[in-house]
Design goal:
The complex is a heterodimer of chains A (113) and B (118).
Chain A (H helix, E strand, L loop, with lengths): L2 E5 L2 E5 L4 E8 L5 E7 L5 E7 L5 E3 L5 E5 L4 E6 L8 E8 L7 E2 L3 E6 L1
Parallel strand pairs in A: 2-11
Antiparallel strand pairs in A: 1-3, 3-8, 4-5, 4-9, 6-7, 7-8, 9-10, 9-11
Chain B lengths: L3 E4 L2 E4 L5 E7 L6 E7 L5 E8 L5 E2 L8 E7 L2 E6 L8 E8 L9 E3 L3 E5 L1
Parallel strand pairs in B: 2-11
Antiparallel strand pairs in B: 1-3, 3-8, 4-5, 4-9, 5-6, 7-8, 9-10, 9-11
The chains are: A mainly beta (113), B mainly beta (118).
Amino acid sequence: AQSVTQLGSHVSVSEGALVLLRCNYSSSVPPYLFWYVQYPNQGLQLLLKYTTGATLVKGINGFEAEFKKSETSFHLTKPSAHMSDAAEYFCAVSDGSDYKLSFGAGTTVTVRA
Amino acid sequence: GAVVSQHPSRVICKSGTSVKIECRSLDFQATTMFWYRQFPKQSLMLMATSNEGSKATYEQGVEKDKFLINHASLTLSTLTVTSAHPEDSSFYICSAVEGPLGYQETQYFGPGTRLLVL
């Protein structure tokens, strides 16, 4: 079984500052890891994913995440926050066999002008 | 990119009535679709896995007779909430996997359907 823990339910950053969202996972098999973003009253949009290969994954909108097996982590970063980054972010894990995703509780990002 | 639509986007119904929500993959074939439920300010909870041409697989604790799922074609899955009650009010989101199992790992999500049962 897989599970995800997102540290911090709410993150507030200044525009132009670093965005760091933390995600730790638990999996009995090599995991597939995902970050999704959700804007109010909308579905989820894939930011990036890790399946195999390079552990530093670049996604859309300037986000990237690094898979660290030794730390069972998949933290999401963006060097410079923009007002449009204000949203809910979900980390998710699957075992890659049946596509079932287990989601973290989510982190709300607010961006201060 | 792959697009998934849902209809309706918002529905209000009376207690005791049934509501059907459609999920369509617009530009790809989806052998597998998923239905999620999201309560306010909470994460997504998987309700069921919908496979084209076969019965849906429900997660533990989800009433299959209350949440009827039909995946009649490779581009359409429907979720029917039968005899809806106020506690069924929620945000329902579907997702679809492009391509055959083992080929693609990405789920594409629909925009969600807000259900309010009065």
